[in-house]
Amino acid sequence: MADMNMAKPIIELQSVSVGYDNRDVLKDMRIALQPGSFTFVTGKSGSGKTTLLNLLYLNKKPSKGVLNIFGHNINFANRDNLARLRQKIGVVFQDFRLLEHLSVYDNIALPLRVRGMNEKDIYKRVIELLKWIELHKSIYKTCNTLSGGEKQRVAIARAVIGRPDILFADEPTGSVDFEMADKLMRLFVELNRVGTTVIIATHNEYLTLTYNYQRIDLNNGTAKLYPALKRV
Questions:
Q1: The domain 37-61+83-226: what is its CATH number?
Q2: Can you list the alpha helix ranges (DSSP code H) found in 26-118?
Q3: Are 153 and 176 within 8 A, CB to CB?
Q4: Residues 90-145: pLDDT tens digits?
Q5: DSSP-based three-state secondary structure for 39
């Protein structure tokens, strides 16, 4: 197996700034993330965590600098190229963005149907994941009848069902209890172990201390990458 330290970054920001209304929210960011890495994004409210995720999951282009993802310069990517790259990415949005009129099952199955997977294989994979997140008894409920915590679990399941190359999650444990938060984190860890690059924005200090991974800390629009702590 190749040394991960020698691999080409899967995400690379070269002096990247992102601005709104003539003001830079993120400034001169220089970060490289390796394939298969696990990274927390931390910082106070308003520090730019959601803006950074918006940039990385290709919802926004840099105002300045160069963003490379999967070895592609995003600055010059057209709509079709961006669509192809997004197929390799899973996203857990803070506001869930579920199709509220559809069932739990149909929301989670959607990414696999877009890929053209047969329904028998889709059913097997969805049921397995629903059991893990403890929603297998709610398979046919429409999402507009679910609680906030249940919607969050569905949103996470939809993001991971396709085993994406990169997973972005914006406060993925914010609406669930401690026990379920730990279970969801173990799901992210398992996904990472099979090769997915995971980036999680969180204000939950317990998560960052319990799960010892590298961390991008945002402060006044600037970023610093801290390595995982070496444990004795």
A1: 3.40.50.300
A2: 49-56, 79-86, 104-115
A3: yes
A4: 999 989 999 999 999 999 999 999 999 999 999 999 999 999 999 999 999 999 99
A5: strand
